[in-house]
Amino acid sequence: MAVGRRPAPDLGRVVFEEAGGIAEVLAACDAGRVDLAILDGEAQPTGGMGLSRQLKNEIDDCPPIVVTVRRRDDRWLATWSQADAVLVHPLDPVGAAETVAEVLRAAAAVDAPVVR
Questions:
Q1: CB-based burial of residue 58 (10 Å sphere; 0-12 exposed, 13-18 middle, 19+ buried)?
Q2: pTM of the model
Q3: Which helix (H) or strand (E) holds 38?
């Protein structure tokens, strides 16, 4: 909820879809229903960092991923996970919204058609 419904004025409203387990996350990402995944790096039994790495390596058109971690020192693990960005708890609403907006803008720029 720290991200809010509209992380930046130039972006549309965000619709959240919560998943209760790894199977739900995999199905939603594989079906293309996710524009951005925010994964809990501390979740058990399968943490968001391992899931991020799996998604990045197994889904051809993988959505961008933001991983949340409890300790600032765990940011290096999120790099291993191939996450596009990392948020550290406690989540700062302004910082979380800015990070999500940056990741969404970067993804939109990659998907934009090339005009020649």
A1: exposed
A2: 0.89
A3: strand 37-40
